[in-house]
Amino acid sequence: MTDTTTALEPVVARLAETAPGLRVETGPGPTGLYAYDASNYRVPPRAVVFPRNADDVCAVLRACREAGVPVTARGGGTSMAGNAVGPGAVLDFSRYMNRILDIDVQSRTARVEAGVILDALRSATAPHGLTFGPDPSSHSRCTLGGMIGNDACGNRSVRHGRTSGHIEALEIVTADGVRAVADRTGLRAADPNDTDAVQRVARLEADVRRLIDANLAPIRTELGRIPRQVSGYQLHHLLPEHGFDMARALVGTEGSCAVVTAATVRLVATAQVTALLTLGYDDVVDAAEDVPEILRWNPTAVEGMDEAIVATMRARRGPDSVTGLPEGRAWLYVELDGDDEAAVNARAAALLDVLKAQGRMTGGRVVENAAERRSLWRVREDGAGLAARLVDGGESWPGWEDAAVAPENLAAYLRDFRELLAAHELTGVLYGHFGAGCVHVRIDFDLATDTGRAAARRFLSEAAALVVEHGGTLSGEHGDGRARGELLQVMYSHRMIRAFAAFKEIFDPEGLLNPGIIVAPARLDADLALHTPTDVLPVDTLFSFPHDEDGFAGAVRRCVGVGRCRSDAGGVMCPSYRATGEENDSTRGRARLLQEMVRSGTVQEGWRSTEVRDALDLCLSCKACSSDCPVGVDMATYKAEFLHQHYKGRLRPRSHYSLGWLPLTSALAGYAARPVNALLRGPVGKLLARLGGVTTKRRIPAFASRRTLRKVLRAAQTGEPAKALLFVDSFTRAFRPEVVGAASRVLVDAGIPCTAQDDLCCGLTWVSTGQLSIARRIMARTVARLDNGDDRPIVVAEPSCAAALKRDVPELLGTRAARRVAARVHTLTGALTDLAAPDWTPPELPTSVVLQTHCHEYATFKGRHPRDLLGRLGVRKVDEAEGCCGLAGNFGFEEQHYDTSIAVADLALKPRLDGIDQDAPVVVVADGFSCATQIDHLAGDRGIRALHLAELLDPAADRPGETS
């Protein structure tokens, strides 16, 4: 092992010569980001390198070998075993080496670089009726290189097995920088004309052959015993009877023997027809008892989970986020496939009948609705995150999250495993690939104290002995990593452990590739992220963080690295990452830097940190992560708190004053709206924009006059007894008072007559710019006026202000009065969904609508989305731009953020607007003022204007049929 404190300067200098232009990051920000994966471990690297091609990788490995610096290859960084963190140079393949090099439909193969995201490959092969078989739950962000490193499996491993079964060839770079190809028959130099490489690779292969010949008996008896035996090295693929398959032998080595730069993979045909059954049970052991019978029916998937995951999903995303489950406290998903729909459905019905006769099920059904199937699979796929931070606030951790046994032994193993948990007074949340005998479990270890870590160590040692007793394996797809490498001696003989070490030494004699993994493993309780130093940052915040026991520190600790925020599609999170592709701009990256700030790790300056400030800079404060993130990270709130602390007592960015104080300046502008608007449209307006840090590439919205507002408010008075309070927010009051009149008429029409309150503010703009002391004063005044014994619903036309009243106000004030007010708040969509008269019939609506839902409404008002309401009211086609509009309040108006704002709009909103046919006009609906403003900026020159839902439903309005 080499001293990891070796200076990096020679490496950086060498790379500047041999790989000019190669991106190498060594600062506290990047090294803090890459100190974590999705495991329990924290290992700050010395440098993070972003290779562009295999030649870059060769240059890095040669330079690191010369300097004695370890190298860890990394894909999506979603490893739960700690195999994607390392103390030297970390190579991030996902940033640039993410190209699909070839798809051969005839041979059903594809050649891909190591950083290709699995979903990208699946999308590219889908038009040909092909896919890659293994499908981990992290398919939206895991890379093929990472899957190869772990030998990943996935939800349909009952049918498709492990990644190793789908690899034709691996393009690798050895520890000394030689390019080679490992295939089904051995190892060869990538360039047959490179004499030195040919000789080096020939010696390497000969050494491996000698090792296998000397260890035939233990390899045949100890390896490859059960389908999910991933622990250790898969040397049995090198046996003579298996043809010396070097490609499969290197799969699952976790980057500890060679660095994979590309792979040729086998593809499989996509299923023509599938049926999903959901089966309910009293507990997971009963569910496991039925697995052997289910496997007889040749399913593609048999997945299990317990009630804690479902309860957390419903609490985080609303009760309607999980539908289609029968009664029970544990469930199995069973998927059947075939070519004929009737035949598949008949098999599903027959299987249900057989399982009912077995007598263990509490209920079962075939899920026919496609939307229900998607929501159910999402629950299962988010299992790791949902289990990490449960609805009761409890935390759980990996470490023993990947054990596997033969499927027929699963029930007995689970029964004994639960007894072991009870004996150690631990609780585990269970889910996993029951059809393959692989159980994922997150356990409420106490990893923050010496006593707790010692207890966890004892448990893990006994758990290892237990799974071996049941003929199982420590790891079924996540790899051994730092979590289980030390326990391999429980599973394997000393001779096999020595064979593993010899295999690594042949490939990596200096021990520089991912040290501490599998061979000469680090202690499983070393480098734990929760083992925090004593001099952590004192955290005294204005936000109360009521759902996190340790306040701000506990809130940022929610991030456990599963990386859903790095997905390119599905949900809204994370718009900045989708626009830039940088880890620094992901929810996970920001949370990890905040964790470093709290622990005074790589980030030493606390609240004054420029690294954290820069990481948060492109956060749009959209709040989508608070809903889409499986553990409920709320980066908008963390950013607001950080900005408050960072700029306390200091001069702020100009836009914090010009945009943060908008409610006040817009109210003043309303008294002289006409001259103010004329002034802002001219050169003075551009000058004022520059002085205020506001982009001149946007037109400043016109202010409405107080006279117009008063006229609208008078017209809104119906004389009927008010059943609700219409809260007229600052944006509506200043820029589109016509929405007040429309909303009032719609509410009356729906049987909810209201009275308008137009002199209060939610404080949102001060929150989003981190001026929390002022926000609290504004909010306190608003709460005092609203909490006056009146319990009528409060309806807010502007979704962002509704979200601020619903969530920010109680969390910033922390008073009962604030919570009472928050409980009364509804968006217009929510009011019409929950409060409208049963016999209300809206005016005639268009058959088709393009919809932009405000991110704050999406995140905060779960199950009350405009898309669903429009569908219930008769709109047949709702084409929703799934994602952030990009303007996001003050963000898109700030000079330095304009380009990112447009890049975010390009992801979903702009394509919808560009697809509108001028000859067949479509109505565009956007309740958020910022969304409507972005739409006007992008398409206003084509006559496209967004309507508020109130304007669409206004009984007094002309029926929409034109473009506007």
Class by alpha and beta content: alpha/beta
Radius of gyration: 29 Å
End-to-end distance: 69 Å
Chain-averaged pLDDT: 94
Poorly predicted ranges: 1-5, 960-964
For the secondary structure, the number of strands is 25
The largest sheet has its strands arranged as 5-6-11-8-9-10
In DSSP terms (H or I, runs of 4 or more residues), the helix count works out at 44
What's the story with the biggest beta sheet? Answer: 6 strands, antiparallel
Q: Could you say which overall geometry the principal axes of the C-alpha atoms support?
A: globular
Percentage of residues in strands: 5-15%
Q: How helical, in percent, are the residues?
A: 40-55%
Please give a structural write-up.
This protein is α/β, with parallel strands linked by helices. The chain has 44 helices and 25 strands. Strands 5-6-11-8-9-10 form a 6-stranded antiparallel β-sheet. A hairpin with a 4-residue loop joins strand 5 (100-104) and strand 6. The longest helix is centred in the N-terminal third of the chain and has 20 residues, at 195-214. The model is unreliable at 1-5 and 960-964 (pLDDT under 50).
Explain briefly what this protein structure is.
The chain has 44 helices and 25 strands. Strand 8 (167-173) and strand 9 form a beta hairpin. The protein is 41% helix and 12% strand.
